[in-house]
Specification:
alpha+beta; three-stranded antiparallel beta sheet; 28% strand; elongated
Amino acid sequence: MAITISFVHNSTTTTQTVTPASTQRVADYLASLTGGGEAYFTAVAGRLIEEANQWAAQQAANTAAQGVAPVFPTWATGLWMAAGTQWRHNSQTWRARQAHRSQIGWEPPNVPALFELVPAAAGIWAAGVSYAPPTEVTHVGIRYRCLQSHTSQVGWEPPNVPALWAVV
């Protein structure tokens, strides 16, 4: 899928075809038109990225439903990451909790305020994942239902924290 956009800057109209793969380049170009300082172009660039990432997430969901593992972009510094978008880092998939531009030191496992780990297999308990009732997970072959919203961590496995999990 591709989206064609047109925008005007200093009386010059530019038309650009945007695909999920080229969205970051187009967004960076829009932001650079005014040195990245004008809020309007930054907002437009962010919205383009959000739209492309929503499309990519839908495509990933469709491929997962067909039994094919989804592929997400690889985390790197200097990328705009809209809230809810998913990124690959060190062979794991991470979801951005809030919009931000990636920086050195802000890698997904280092900043839990910015990222949450997406479980490798839906329904399998994993540390670093946000859970909310009535989510159900499997841990060591036993099915559990989440009782309270929380972000899991090592030591909080379902059998260890009955305030957070109940056997189904």
